[in-house]
Amino acid sequence: MTELASGGALRLPRARVVPLSAPPPSYAAAVERYLTGAGIAKSSARIYRISLTTWGWMLAGEPAPTGPNRRGAKPPVFPITGIDDPALPEVLAELAAARADAMDADTVNRELSIARKAIGWWQRQGWIEGDPTIGIERRPAPPDRTKALAENQIAALWRLDVALREKTQWKMLYESAARADEALCLNVEDLYLQDKRGKITAKGGATEWIHWQSGTAQLLPRLIARRTRGPLFLTDRKAPAGTPTLDVCPETGRARLSYRRAEEIFEENTRLLANPLASPNDIEDLDGWTLHRLRHSALTHDAEDGTSTPMLLARSRHASVRSLERYARPAVDAVARHVAERDPAVRRRT
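Given the sequence above, the corresponding structure tokens read:
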């Protein structure tokens, strides 16, 4: 039946979406259905799963664990229909605000965007009706002009005493300018060692190539050893029960290294490099670098060295020239070198 709204306008009753299939038994199952049913690329699925797991705590009305508390924490189990709880939006807004105060804006905004995409997909399946994130605003993220590491910082990174896996992974990310999640999804059979390149699944599911230099080429054979297939970067332990087959090495039984763990290791090992004036005694209170800064640094250093725009596009695998603006910002040392080289007094002495 139709009703008259204020002003005499005709208001149609809200149509209920007929479920395309039975709702999954739990939120976790709904996440997996979304990742497979929505066509999320393998390289992105790992990041989506981590973000949606974080939101799982908040959608259950609990604060999401952070830092060391997150490792080993068991996400709450609740039905996907619990998202339609009328009391959830208010609780969720408070939890999201608290998390936003504790995390950087880019991370918070990315997680919110992923959660909204999943919720929209679940709505279209008819599993839920509402969106409890309505009213939660994105946090302003001022541009970071310091993302590119200086060349002396990169050199200090290579001098760190870390495991072969980390040495190889970090070298590959810098030399190839690849995204961390793309490199972590590499399998041994995706590598073309003689050509110094590897086949990756990029954003949108496209198959693309990344290329590396001699530093990575020298380390890869030691990392691979005698393996011929399976994930390139592995955890130190056997894969737990239930790990997807694609993420388990068939020769060692170890699991693929997750983005979250790789990020944690890099951040922990770079705390003193990121804070050179700090005392080692304060290391637990310091913040290190993010893996993305290796890609950002590689492309910025290319730009500083005069690499052409077409080559920068090919290296970054961006579709738009505008996307290169974030990298075409020479670092402080590069600007200082540029000014010094053009100093008239220096030229006269030469």
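The longest strand covers residues 197-201. Try to locate this feature in the token string yourself.
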